[in-house]
Design goal:
Layout lengths: L8 H12 L4 H15 L10 E7 L3 E7 L16 E4 L6 E3 L16 H12 L4 H5 L2 H7 L1 E2 L2 H8 L9 H4 L4 H7 E2 L2 E2 L5 E2 L2 H13 L2 H4 L2 H12 L6 H5 L4 E3 L2 E5 L2 E5 L6 H8 L2 H5 L5 H21 L9 H4 L18 H18 L1
Antiparallel strand pairs: 1-2, 2-9, 3-4, 5-8, 6-7, 10-11
Helix pairs in contact: 1-2, 2-3, 2-5, 5-9, 8-17, 13-15
Length: 355
């Protein structure tokens, strides 16, 4: 038995079809990821990053980390003079010019393409081209704008982040994709991403190396250099997926595996093992309330300093004076998650224009 979980039903159906044809869970997950990048273009896509936890009866357990890393041109103290305040959600910082939230300087080296390729190579049974193929016609021919997509564009997420309505228009290439004439696409209108379709076709035909070492990489590096970004061609060429062991814990006698920092696996394990929660019956109102409290508390602890071992070198500096808290690592950093995802989305629009 298998369960496919993803935000868009159409992507889940495509994943299900992969498994009906004999593919395994990783085949379905990688295929779904490419389709999701088309159907939810304002989310991560091929310009983003992620993490994958794999469990196999023969292969065992593995955690594939393909987080974004800071470009080599980033400097630890580059934003100290731009600091305004900590964001109200306590998840990031507000800087003058919002340079950490949108634009070329907010973008790290993208890991999604490398991560999906690594997963498919290690655990998949279908080819790279087969995994990408279902996403191509959705981008080329378009699909109706959903209420979820339109709601994301128009919802107010507060004063400490760039409004998404502005975010998706930050470059001429982004405007060409997200605007129908001089206004946003309405729910139900056909949304076409022809440049993304051609990029996906190229990835399918030439493999993931074209993204990190080939012509796509050349164009990415040149675009960043021309617009004050921190990512270089060498950063792309040397990007590597980190394959490691997942965190392990227990819950009511069962083994639980989760992703380690900077993901929230440790928060999940802490929540599940709060004594008050363990004493409550499943489904009771008090249990649900305690889980909510645990999530908030765990989230605060995570924001205060849950970092992965690969970024441990700058952990103490990140936890210093309030001005220091807006620094980034000069070796390995996941920047801050909102800026990484948001910046990757906008940078990808520029990449499509170049290709």
């Amino acid at each position: 038995m298998a369960i496919i979980v993803c935000p868009q039903p159409a992507a889940a159906e495509i994943g299900l079809e992969v498994m009906r044809r004999g593919g395994n869970a990783v085949d379905a997950a990688v295929t779904c990821a490419f389709v999701q990048g088309v159907l939810d273009p304002q989310m991560c896509g091929i310009g983003g990053c992620g993490v994958m936890l794999v469990h196999g009866p023969k292969s065992g357990d593995a955690l594939l980390e393909f987080y974004a890393t800071a470009g080599s041109r980033a400097r630890e103290d580059q934003w100290e003079h731009l600091f305004i305040r900590q964001a109200a959600d306590r998840y990031g910082y507000v800087l003058d010019g919002r340079v950490n939230d949108v634009g070329y300087q907010s973008v790290g080296v993208p890991g999604t393409v490398a991560g999906l390729a690594e997963a498919l190579t290690r655990y998949g049974t279908i080819t790279w081209a087969q995994a990408i193929e279902p996403a191509i016609p959705l981008a080329r021919d378009g699909f109706p704008v959903t209420g979820f997509m339109h709601g994301y564009w128009t919802t107010d997420y507060g004063p400490d982040v760039v409004p998404n309505r502005e975010r998706i228009q930050v470059t001429p290439a982004a405007k060409a994709i997200y605007l129908n004439g001089d206004k946003l696409f309405e729910i139900g209108e056909l949304f076409v991403q022809g440049d993304l379709a051609r990029t996906l076709e190229r990835l399918a035909n030439e493999g993931p190396d074209v993204f990190y070492k080939g012509e796509i990489a050349d164009r990415i590096a040149a675009d960043f250099a021309a617009n004050g970004g921190f990512v270089t061609k060498e950063d792309l060429a040397t990007y590597r997926v980190n394959v490691t062991e997942p965190l392990r814990g227990t819950y009511r006698g069962l083994t639980v595996m989760a992703a380690g920092p900077p993901a929230a696996g440790i928060t999940l394990l802490q929540m599940l093992n709060r004594p008050a929660i363990r004493r409550c019956a499943h489904g009771c109102a008090r249990r649900q309330g305690l889980r909510g409290q645990g999530a908030r508390g765990g989230g605060r602890r995570r924001r205060r300093g849950a970092r992965g071992p690969r970024s441990a070198g700058h952990d103490s500096r990140m936890r210093g004076r309030r001005l220091r808290k807006c620094r980034v690592s000069d070796s390995h950093s996941w920047l801050r998650e909102r800026s990484r995802h948001a910046g990757a989305r906008i940078w990808l629009q520029r990449l499509h224009e170049l290709l």
